Amino acid sequence: MGARRRSHEGTTWDAAGGCRGSCRLSRTDPERGGPFREGRSSVRLTREITDSAIRNAPDPESLTLRACTITLSKCKGYIRSDYIVQKGAEMRDEQGIGGSVSRLSGRRQPPTVRLRRLAAELRRLRQEAGLSQDDVMEKTNVNSVTLYRIETARTKPQLRTLIALLDAYGVTGSERVDLLALQKEAKQRGWLHGLEADLPDKYSTYIGLEAEAQKAINYESLFVPGLLQTEDYARSVVRGVLPTATEAEVESFVTARMQRQGLLENETPLRLWTIIDQAALCRTVGNHAIMRDQLTHLIQQAQRPHVTVQVIPFSAGAHPGMPGSFIVLKFGTDGPDVIHIDSMAGDLFLEKETDIQRYNQICEHLQAVALSPNDTTALIASLCKDH
């Protein structure tokens, strides 16, 4: 038997066509390879999924049962899929690539809000520590490719990898506890983010998501949308909504809101579509001068090619937006939409497909009942005269 050697080469790859490895079948002593049989012949499998296969893959976590199935067909079913999945997991583990190998699909699961938040925080902490990705690799042995994937929410860091990064960044106390909790819950969809003691932190998760989005659809029933507010209007809103906030806290909120508006000034700006109930424009916030400046600013912003402003007039009657304001953040090919709802209890993030579909349908209804952009500008101009 030992003199008769025959090999069969097979290839594995993921859904994106980038992950390649090899497996070799040869007839030899079954005690050296395992009790696999082809008819009456003992078959030894010399199994190999190379490190380069994982490193060169565009999506290393996609070494899945689907890829194994392709391998099995190439190798005429001689390799057990559970071995390939196990070996792939071992290789991923050696490289510090977190998360379990999916047995269901070769398609990468889109990042959750929690995972996006964890990625953004780790990126911020590294930058604040003044470390490059190469510096981190020297300190933690986490290679730069893995670190890039973690910081862009393409993969969930393993616990030991996260601990190594937090140690390198000098993160301790409650911040460390919060980040470890995020890692544990990173795959859960939907999130109610409660109010933080440090008021601006309440918005940190949303701000991070908004900065990554390609488009935002914002419906507001009571306020002018935050990205279109003047500084004086924003200050009056914060003082009115948070009557117990200190002056420093108010200014922190206002500063954060003004910085957010930089998204509309980028070389590739955020595409913003706002739908506003007329009630928000008729309410005098601050004083007449502040409202006049705010309405004038709204007209000016509406002229920009990447900003659309529509108003739902009182004459439209009841409409689907009356239950409350919301924002739909769209990420294009980078992931599914995220729905953000700001409430007295905190920030609510919705990620389920049914929720996304429902809110997109609501957006379509609101856009249909609202005035056209030109008629909206005319209405706002007429309201401006009242101030």
Would you write up a description of this structure?
Residues 19-40 are annotated as: Disordered. Residues 26-40 have a biased composition (Basic and acidic residues). Residues 122-176 form the HTH cro/C1-type domain. This is HTH cro/C1-type domain-containing protein. This protein is α+β, with helices and mostly antiparallel strands and 387 residues long. It has three domains: 8-94, no CATH class; 113-184, Orthogonal Bundle (434 Repressor (Amino-terminal Domain)); 191-384, 2-Layer Sandwich (Endonuclease, Chain A). 44% of the residues lie in helices and 16% in strands. The strands form two sheets. A seven-stranded mixed beta sheet has the order 5-11-10-9-6-7-8, sandwiched between helices. It has a four-stranded antiparallel beta sheet with strand order 1-2-4-3. Helix 5 (113-128) packs across helix 10, helix 8 (159-169) runs antiparallel to helix 9 and helix 14 (288-302) runs antiparallel to helix 16. The radius of gyration is 27 Å and the shape is elongated. Mean pLDDT is 74; it is low at 1-107 and 190-202.
